[in-house]
Specification:
heterodimer; A: mainly alpha; 2 domains; B: alpha/beta; Rossmann fold; 6-stranded mixed β-sheet; 4-stranded antiparallel β-sheet; 14 helices; 17 strands
Chain lengths: 339, 443
């Protein structure tokens, strides 16, 4: 006679599991990684590899040495953090910079809180911001433009020599500070939209191509990994808010499309703000979260000291998530009337 | 196409047994007829050991308003009245009858003729349904006559017949719709008359196109009856979800379904109502499915109430080698069988075999706060939060977050990527909170 399992309903489970969801996020990030590898060759491979290996190794070690628990790297979340961290760093980052990033991301931002699901802030973004304020020159001073043609097997020094320079947003901010009018600034060939859409945007590894990021986002939606509310509310808010500023004074403010395509906005809106752990549960909460990120991003970009504000905006809104989770979903029905 | 608006999941359909016509299951040598066939107070036996009984003879009386009488499903001699273990292994009082022949009481019309004309009036119909021990066959086995006697504060406006059969695997309702369409439609007409309403909807999910086509065609002969095609989504057959899907009204929290004007009856119940009212046949048979991917046979049966489940299993080639879990009911809300010798009840709808790969629970990991449970909950609750509150016995907070609204459909556990058994905790918390709420003095 068979030994029968007895447990309460439901007796079957859906296809989703943590590993599959994380795997889908990794797949969705591949187009952006591939674009980066296409233009920067070995140095991009170096960046992603060091970041992923470091993140996974640190999670494994902390789990074994401090928690003395079962290894959790099988859920693939450390790999997601590793790839995201890589995409948030300049392509030619030295190995020790990446390693510090990984220690901050996994060690401090994730495992200190108890591991996957427990952290308040997005690990990769915490690392990016720590590096940004600790090593400002390496992180922003010489961001790298993609060379004219792909450097599939090119190496870092050549690229640096060829095309180092400011990111589009930094360039605009710098020129504005000098008193140059906006339409003059926009004549710079490095700021054309076709460059940003495909792959010629200056910036971190993951900010090269808007289309590659969009492909990944669509994949996540099709696979029902995420819902579109957070990303769309960020993009719409940035577009509307910066559009209003632009309409008010086109000589002083960049146009809204430029704001949408530049910096880490798409990477942030599609992949960082939508991180399950650090975003709200309900649709209402997610929309408020997205609008908040959009508003803070534009404020920092336009009036703040830094040219880019997405990372700060997401981290600031991360801190509101416990509060936003107090917003209850719409219940099925109202309470019955007492008779 | 209509459906309910909030939450829901899409488990694989698996209607493997849908083409198996309903057969008569052989009668076993001994039946064990439980007194707790229904929700509410168990019935009290009115026969004694040694008594001769016929098929359809009353053997136990209802013992309260929410209770139902029980009739013998076989002819023979009452052997004993004893405690018999149900499928969960819980003992309950049952009348044990040794079968001799198959002699029916002569008040039952055993002919195959479909009786269309309804001669009883409103009051007589409800009385007949009560006498015949008809209970809801959609899962809860709530006495049907009680549902047909709404409180004076509510005004019924329509009957909804639940043909959603949204649970994977189950096909007994589908077979009734295909094989007994006229009886079903007359059953619906009787229910309208009993409630004094002139509208009856039959909600059927889109994965049963043959049933939708056949009943839509036949319904033309039955004034007031309308077939409503529903999108395939679980738990469409939940009473609250079905009312929302069909007439777009929401049953209030802690309210009665009839507050929306709708009275929902399952397909099997409507058929039992037809047999009780038109054929004077008490409810002592049920229609059930024997199925599962690993099941040796795929069949639909009419069984006599009280037949041991093990007898049915043997009749269908025995328990498959790789069956790891046997379920009575569907895979989402059914009960795992502990005692395979337990007898069938009026509401027994299936024997479902699942393999270890299909059903074994995987180890729970950290909640990743993906919100999938919140999105899947058809009641708009926050399962992840209820689970956390429940594990800490925070009853006030559980009540404030409406744990009592949970319909125990299992969508949260089904969708959780971290394999957290959310419903296990929520079900226990709900019971505890309901107990606390009931213990409060009424204002």
């Amino acid at each position: 006679m068979n030994k029968l399992i007895v447990s309460p309903s439901p007796h079957v489970h859906g296809k989703d599991n943590t590993r599959r969801l994380m795997g889908d996020v990794i797949i969705a990030l591949l187009p952006a990684v591939l674009v980066s590898i296409y233009f920067f060759g070995l140095s991009a491979i170096h960046l992603v590899a060091v970041s992923v290996v470091a993140c996974v190794a640190i999670e494994y070690l902390i789990q074994k040495l401090f928690f003395k628990g079962k290894s959790t790297i099988g859920d693939l979340s450390a790999i997601v953090t590793g790839v995201l961290l890589a995409l948030n760093l300049p392509v030619c980052s030295p190995w020790w910079l990446i390693l510090i990033g990984a220690v901050v991301a996994i060690g401090i931002a994730k495992m200190t809180f108890g591991g996957l699901g427990q952290n308040l802030f997005n690990p990769a973004l915490v690392a990016r911001v720590v590096l940004l304020v600790s090593f400002p020159i390496l992180m922003t001073g010489s961001a790298f433009h993609a060379p004219e043609s792909g450097y599939l097997f090119g190496n870092a020094p050549e690229v640096v020599d060829a095309t180092s320079g400011a990111t589009p947003l930094a360039l605009v901010k710098e020129q504005l500070a000098k008193g140059v009018a906006m339409d003059e600034i926009m004549k710079d060939p490095n700021l054309s939209y076709s460059q940003m859409l495909f792959a010629r945007m200056g910036g971190s590894a993951g900010e090269l191509s808007a289309i590659a990021l969009l492909l990944g986002f669509i994949y996540l939606l099709v696979r029902r990994v995420i819902k579109p509310y957070i990303s769309l509310s960020i993009l719409i808010t940035v577009f509307v808010f910066s559009g209003l500023l632009y309409l008010g004074n086109p000589a002083k403010f960049v146009d809204p499309v430029f704001n949408l395509l530049t910096g880490g906005l798409l990477l942030g809106a599609f992949f960082m703000a939508t991180d399950y752990v650090t975003s709200p549960m309900t649709t209402k909460g997610q929309i408020i979260f997205g609008v908040g990120i959009g508003v803070i991003t534009v404020l920092i970009r336009t009036f703040g000291a830094y040219p880019e504000g997405v990372s700060f905006a997401i981290l600031i809104m991360n801190s509101t998530v416990p509060l936003l989770n107090k917003i209850q979903p719409k219940r099925f029905a109202k309470e019955a009337q007492k008779k | 196409m209509r459906t309910f608006k909030m939450g829901g999941v899409h488990p694989a359909d698996k209607k493997i047994s849908k083409d198996a016509a309903i057969e008569k299951l052989p009668i076993p040598k001994t039946v064990y007829i439980s007194m707790g066939q229904h929700l509410g107070a168990p019935a009290e036996p009115c026969v004694a050991p040694g008594d001769k009984v016929k098929v359809g003879q009353l053997i136990a009386n209802a013992t309260g308003f929410v209770s139902a009488p029980v009739h013998s499903s076989v002819s023979g001699t009452v052997k004993s009245i004893e405690m018999v273990k149900d499928l969960a292994g819980k003992p309950g009082k049952a009348v044990v009858i040794d079968v001799e022949g198959d002699e029916w009481v002569d008040t039952i019309d055993r002919s195959e003729t479909v009786v269309k004309e309804i001669t009883l009036d409103k009051k007589q119909i409800v009385e007949r349904i009560k006498e015949c021990g008809v209970v809801g066959l959609g899962g809860a086995t709530f006495p049907t006559n009680v549902k047909l006697s709404p409180p004076p504060t509510a005004t019924p406006t329509c009957v909804i017949i639940n043909g959603a059969e949204c649970e994977p695997y189950l096909t007994s309702d589908y077979r009734v719709m295909i094989e007994k369409p006229d009886q079903l439609l007359i059953g619906g007409t009787i229910l309208m008359k009993a409630l004094g309403v002139d509208k009856c909807y039959i909600g059927i999910e889109e994965n049963k196109p043959e049933a939708i086509k056949l009943l839509t065609e036949k319904a033309k002969e039955y004034p007031g009856v309308e077939v409503v095609k529903l999108k395939k989504k679980y738990p469409q057959g939940g009473e609250k979800q079905l009312i929302d899907a069909v007439i777009g009204k929401k049953v209030p929290s802690m309210g009665l379904p009839v507050d929306t004007g709708a009275v929902v009856q399952n397909v099997g119940t409507a058929f039992a109502v037809y047999e009780a009212v038109q054929k004077n046949k008490p409810l002592f048979e049920g229609i059930m499915t024997v199925t599962g991917d690993c099941s040796k046979e795929q069949r639909n049966f009419v069984h006599r109430v009280g037949t041991p489940l093990s007898f049915i299993m043997e009749h269908c080639g025995g328990v498959p080698e790789d069956a790891a879990k046997i379920i009575s009911g569907g895979p989402m809300m059914g009960k795992a069988i502990v005692n395979i010798d337990a007898p069938t009840l009026k509401g027994t709808s299936s024997i479902l075999y699942l393999t270890e790969a299909q059903t074994k629970r995987k180890p729970e990991s950290n909640c990743i706060r993906c919100g999938k449970c919140v999105g899947a909950c058809p009641m708009g609750l926050e399962p992840y939060l209820l689970n956390k509150l429940g594990r800490n016995n925070m009853f006030d907070e559980l009540e404030a977050h409406k744990v009592y609204d949970c319909i125990e459909c299992g969508c949260c556990s089904f969708s959780c990527p971290a394999y957290i058994p959310l419903l296990d905790t929520i079900r226990q918390s709900k019971a505890a909170v309901m107990k606390i709420m009931k213990s409060r003095p009424k204002k």
